[in-house]
Amino acid sequence: MSDTLIQLQALSDEFTALRRDIHQHPELGYQEFRTSELVAERLASWGYAVTRGLGGTGVVGQLVRGQGGKRLGLRADMDALPIQEATGLPHASCHAGLMHACGHDGHTATLLAAAKHLAEQGDFDGTLNLIFQPAEEGLGGARKMMEDGLFEQFPCDAIFAMHNMPGFPRGKLLLREGATMASSENITITLEGQGGHGAMPHVAIDPVVAGSAIVLGLQTIVARNVPPLQMAVITVGAFQAGQANNVIPQRATLELSVRSLDRKVHQLLNRRIRELVEAQAQSYGCQASIEFRGGYPVLVNTQPETDLARQVALELVGAENVELQTAPLTGSEDFAFMLEQLPGSYLFIGNGDQASGGHGACMVHNPNYDFDDGNIAIGAAFWARLAERFLSA
Ligand SMILES: [Zn+2]
Ligand SMILES: [Zn+2]
User: Fold this and answer.
1) Which of 141, 270, 295, 333 has the most CB atoms around its CB within 10 Å?
2) Where do transmembrane segments lie in this chain (predicted)?
3) pLDDT, tens digit, for every residue of 278-327?
4) Where do the domains of the chain lie, and which CATH numbers do they carry?
C-alpha cells in the first residue's frame, strides 16, 4: 500500500465524521451556507488563503508552495437534492425532503481530507487551487463560478474532479479519455392551435394530434439522421394539453431532454428538431414555438491529463483496481463547462457493488443511497498524489 494511502487512512475517522455531519445537514444548490462556511473555516485553519462568494456560495482555497509556476485546480461539489431520505441510518438527513443522494457530501469531505494532508505533509512546488462549487445538480454552479471570474482570479493549467459511482467495487478508479459524459439540452415546444368543441374538430385546429405526430417524428431523428455509431437520446418527458374530453384545447406543450456525446451531433439534433417541429406543426395548421433552454456541454477528458490520472491511479491502487477506458455515460455534469476552458480529466470512484452490501451499490438520486466512507482515504490519497505529481519541482 502506498505511503500516501496509509497517511490518509489515519485521517479516515476525522473525515468520516465530517462527511456524516454534512450529510445530516443537506442544502440545495446556491443555498450551501452551512456547508460552505464549514469548508472555508477548515481550509483557513490549515493555512489556505480562502476566497468566498464566487458563484454565490462557492469557496476557493489556495496554497502556494516554493517557486514553481504550475497551477492545479481540483474541484468538488457541495449541493444536495430535494429527496426524502429513506436509509434509516444514524447520520440520515435532519431536514425533511432534502438529502445528499448524489454523494456530494463525500466529494467535499474527500477534497477536504486531501487539503489537510497536502497542507501538513504535501511535497509540491507551485499553486494548488481547491474549488468547492455550489449547485451542480442542474443549476450550473460551475458556470456561475466561471462567470464570476474563477479562472481569471485563480488561473489553472489543468483541472480535475471525481464522482462516486455505485455498482462498482469500493475504491475502484474508472478513467476515460475523450467524451465521457453527454451534453444535455432542455427544449420547450409550444403548439398553438385553435380550441373548439370536441364534437366539431373540423372547425378547430387540434394541437394534441399535431403534438402526437411530433413525439413520434422526433424519434426518427435518432433512428435516421444521427450516424448509427454515435449516441443520441431524445426524451419527451412531459406533454401537456387539455383538461376535458369534449374540449379541443388551444395549446399543447412538450418538454424535451436531448443528450449526445459529440458537439457536432448536439448541433445536428438541435437543427433537425427545429426543422421537424416547424414542418410537422405547419402540416397540421398549428403555430410552433421552440425554446432551446440550454443545458450542459459534452464532458471531454484531455489525453495528457487523463494519462497522468491513470499513472497516479495505477501507482495508488494497482491495475486490478483501475478501469482504464470505462464506458461513457448518458448523464451530464456541469464540470464539462470547466473542461471546455481548461485541459483536465473527470474520473469515477466505485461506491460499492452488491457484494459489498450496505447502501453503496444503490444508484445515486435514490432515497436509499449513501456515500461509502471507505472511499474518503482512497479518493484523498489520489488527490494528494496527483497534486504532488502535477506540481513536482
Ligand atoms: Zn453528483
Ligand atoms: Zn446528481
Assistant:
1) 141
2) none
3) 999 999 999 999 999 989 999 999 999 999 999 999 999 999 999 999 99
4) 3-181+298-391 (3.40.630.10), 183-296 (3.30.70.360)
